[in-house]
Design a protein that fits this description.
Shape: elongated
Strand content: under 5%
Mean pLDDT: 82
Largest sheet: none
Radius of gyration: 17 Å
Structural class: mainly alpha
Low-confidence stretches: none
């Protein structure tokens, strides 16, 4: 079994399992910390206006990710089962 096969197998096992509330909360907390850290760094290096754009873009990306994960947590991922 090659490395690509192992990555694919691990991806499928993680993706096919339903996310728990704890995992969704961990994702939320991680997203908030990432947005705060990235915007603070952007503010320090590039200024306030760029930091606002960075924070806004990341919030949109993480919101889509959280909604997607919550949807799959409710419905499951039977389409990945072989």
């Amino acid at each position: 079994m090659g490395i690509i096969d192992r990555f694919e197998e691990e991806y499928l096992s993680v993706s096919s399992a339903r996310a728990s509330v704890r995992e969704l909360l961990e994702l939320l907390v991680g997203a908030v910390l990432f947005v705060v850290g990235a915007s603070a760094l952007a503010y320090h290096l590039l200024g306030q206006q760029i930091a606002i754009w960075v924070a806004g873009g990341l919030v949109v990306i993480f919101a889509i990710t959280l909604v997607s994960q919550a949807y799959w947590a409710v419905t499951g991922r039977e389409d990945y089962e072989e």
